[in-house]
TrEMBL record:
InterPro entries named among the record's database cross-references: AKR (IPR020471), Aldo/ket_reductase_CS (IPR018170), NAD(P)_OxRdtase_dom_sf (IPR036812), NADP_OxRdtase_dom (IPR023210)
Family: Belongs to the aldo/keto reductase family.
PANTHER family: ALDO/KETO REDUCTASE
Organism of derivation: Meristemomyces frigidus
Site, Lowers pKa of active site Tyr: residue positions: 80
Gene3D superfamilies associated with the record: NADP-dependent oxidoreductase domain
Domain NADP-dependent oxidoreductase: 19-303
Binding site for substrate: 113
Active site per database record: 51 (proton donor)
Protein name, per record: NAD(P)H-dependent D-xylose reductase (XR)
GO molecular function (one): oxidoreductase activity
Lineage: superkingdom: Eukaryota
Keywords: Oxidoreductase
Amino acid sequence: MPSAPTIKLSNGKEMPLVGFGLWKVDNATCAETVYNAIKTGYRLFDGACDYGNEKEVGQGIKKAMDDGLVKREELFIVSKLWNTFHDKERVKPICKKQLEDYGIDYFDLYVIHFPIALKYVDPSVRYPPSWQNEKGDAIEISKTPLSVTYAAMEELYEEGLIKAIGISNYNTALLLDLQRYAKTMPQCLQIEHHPYLVQQDLLNLCKELKLTITAYSSFGPASFLELEMEKAKNVPLLFDQQDIQAIAKKHNKSAGQVLLRWATQRNIAVIPKSNNPDRLAQNLDVCSFDLEQSEIEKISSLDKGLRFNNPLNYGLPPSVGIFG
Ligand SMILES: NC(=O)c1ccc[n+]([C@@H]2O[C@H](COP(=O)([O-])OP(=O)(O)OC[C@H]3O[C@@H](n4cnc5c(N)ncnc54)[C@H](OP(=O)(O)O)[C@@H]3O)[C@@H](O)[C@H]2O)c1
């Protein structure tokens, strides 16, 4: 059975270098998909309140543990704090609700999903809340600064409800600011990272700050084509890109495996999502071959600074765009 090597976070905790992404995993098949992923060898699961499937993920995990496939301590379960829960008093209750949905008592990593605070939406009104306010007729910003939300995350960490602190979708300026107020620096930054969006400056800063990077949307436009996003229709699929195809052919691997190896070989963790059992298995086997340095550079040279997961896509006014 293939399994992924691990990477040591700055607090000494080992995190699998390859995990399974849970965004857009259908509720109806989610528990079975998670169970099969564990059977295939996945140990890291990347979930979030916003994905709306945390109860089903928990059911899949429970079945795998009940069947003796895996123990809790062998899994690395990641979840995320949604934007509408940034206010200080909302952080712990929602983290506890999410843990209850999974049926576990700690997260291995809990991540601030976006550096964007939105007005609180009570879970009894709508869950997951998505981007809109309680009435569902507008996006409303909360006044809570990130330093306050981060301090509440540190409390979760000190209490042992979470074993590592993560942030996501932060740029270099936000990281430098965080360094001013953090008592405990985060261990992990999750960012969109693929050959069309390399963000080398951000990668360099993370190295200096000893922050492990997890890449999401490693296949670039593929994930956003599923959402019918125009931007994703206007560029070639990375799987079809001729340099990537040639490299894949040379190594006798698929284009998807080459894209994932391009990240893992540079110690960047990946969390591909697949609803297809063959691709799910293939995506785990991405550390058993090495690319040449020139191949890594060739893939990196496809960079276009092209971001697909921009918060502006979800209705935020341009004045709160975070990526400049
Ligand atoms: N922090 C954040 O803001 C954030 C944002 C986005 C995503 N994420 C996390 O990152 C995870 C991964 O990102 P993602 O879901 O955007 O997309 P992704 O993993 O880059 O791409 C998924 C797409 O690629 C296809 N695919 C998967 N493996 C393949 C392979 N080997 N060959 C060809 N096609 C393949 C999938 O189709 P099939 O399912 O049909 O295989 C699906 O269409 C998410 O699930 C989520 O956990 C985090």
